[in-house]
Amino acid sequence: MAAITPTGVLRENAGSTTLHIATFAATADDGDTWASSIPHILGYWANGTDTPTAQASTGIDLYLSGSTFTLTTGEANRGLMIYVLSKS
């Protein structure tokens, strides 16, 4: 488990909310965390941007505590994007 940093975060206006799109290189592992510092999170999801080695490894789950996300990646060295919708 390690802290990971996105290679970039794009902010898009989505009406009265903000959509944050964080891109991560193919280095995310199961149990890694991202301290996003995004206030007032309304929703979030992730998708893989790489090709997993097995069908059982395709999913990516996120758990939120405050503004810190913990990843469950299914296998090591996943590339992914995290989408966060916030009232900020």
Kindly describe this structure.
The protein has one domain (8-86): Immunoglobulin-like (Sandwich), CATH 2.60.40.3940. A four-stranded antiparallel beta sheet has the order 1-2-7-4, with no helix packed on it. A three-stranded antiparallel beta sheet has the order 3-6-5, with no helix packed on it. It has 88 residues and is mainly beta. Helices cover 0% and strands 56% of the residues. The radius of gyration is 13 Å and the shape is globular. It has strands at 8-14, 17-28, 33-35, 41-48, 61-65, 68-72, 78-86. The model has no long low-confidence stretch (mean pLDDT 89).
Describe the main β-sheet briefly. 4 strands, antiparallel
Straight-line distance between termini: 29 Å
How many domain regions? Answer: 1
Give the overall form: globular
As residue ranges, the low-confidence spans are none
Helix/strand order, N-terminal first = EEEEEEE
The top level CATH class name:
Mainly Beta
- Average pLDDT, rounded to a whole number, is 89
Corresponding CATH architecture: Sandwich
Percent helix:
under 10%
Structural class comes to: mainly beta
Which sequence of strands runs across the widest sheet? 1-2-7-4
Number of helices: 0
Short description:
0% of the residues lie in helices and 56% in strands. It has 88 residues and is mainly beta.
